[in-house]
């Protein structure tokens, strides 16, 4: 069958199922799964009827195969190389999978976050004694908790550019003086991070 100017092979696998399923496999073939009761003519007719959907599926599979797996660290892409354990060399990230490498980076993000926090905390006039923590969060980049005297940063920030991490740190440190998002709060943020609006917008995208 021809899809988007390419001759695509059709592979049929018969199983004990009622419906007919189409997919594009890793070899860029149309893979059909159906019952033995389905004739070749019926398959051909269904393939033609679903041509547009198959063309979209084929294009998505093509892009997926062409995409090089990369790891994102501090906003920079690293080439993924399969290896039994996680390690880094230059711009290459070695590991069992991209997910394993990203999980490793997130787990070990605290020292980097602490170094960035140390650069900013001295510019604040009066900060209480607090500790820095990290954890993965779904809806927030950071949390300032005056009750427990902790600042918690989202471990996923390790994949963002340093200036975005800096903004979140300044944002949370400013909450020690202003627990709301009042005009005074944003003035405090701006005093320590003048381009906060740009960073804030980028983190929302």
Question: Summary?
Answer:
With 205 residues, this protein is an alpha/beta fold. Helix content is 39%, strand content 24%.
Explain how this protein is built:
- The chain is of the alpha/beta class and 205 residues long.
- It has three domains: 2-66, no CATH class; 70-107, no CATH class; 110-204, Zincin-like (2-Layer Sandwich), CATH 3.30.2010.10.
- The protein is built from seven helices and twelve strands.
- It has helices spanning 40-49, 51-66, 98-107, 110-121, 162-174, 183-192, 196-204, and strands at 2-3, 6-7, 10-14, 21-24, 30-34, 70-73, 76-82, 87-89, 92-95, 131-135, 142-145, 150-154.
- The strands form four sheets. It has a four-stranded mixed β-sheet with strand order 6-7-9-8, covered by helices on one side.
- A hairpin with a 2-residue loop joins β8 and β9 (92-95).
- It is elongated and about 80 Å long.
- The two termini are 40 Å apart.
- The mean pLDDT is 90.
């Amino acid at each position: 069958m021809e899809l988007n100017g390419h001759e695509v092979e059709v592979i049929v696998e018969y199983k004990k199922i009622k419906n007919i399923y189409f997919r594009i496999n890793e070899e860029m073939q149309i893979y059909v799964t159906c019952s033995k009761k389905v004739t070749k003519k019926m398959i051909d007719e269904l393939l033609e009827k679903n041509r547009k959907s198959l063309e979209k599926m084929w294009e998505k599979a093509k892009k997926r195969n062409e995409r090089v797996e990369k790891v994102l660290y501090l906003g920079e892409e690293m080439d993924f190389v399969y290896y039994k354990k996680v390690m880094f060399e230059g711009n290459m990230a070695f590991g069992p999978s991209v997910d394993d490498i990203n999980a490793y980076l997130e787990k070990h993000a605290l020292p980097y976050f602490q170094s960035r926090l140390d650069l900013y905390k001295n510019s604040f006039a009066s900060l209480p004694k607090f500790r820095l923590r990290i954890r993965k969060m779904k809806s927030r980049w950071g949390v300032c908790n005056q009750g427990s005297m902790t600042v918690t940063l989202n471990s996923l920030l390790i994949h963002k550019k340093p200036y975005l991490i800096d903004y979140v740190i300044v944002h949370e440190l400013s909450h020690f003086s202003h627990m709301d998002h009042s005009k005074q709060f944003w003035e405090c943020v701006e005093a320590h991070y003048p381009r906060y609006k740009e960073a804030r917008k980028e983190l929302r995208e």
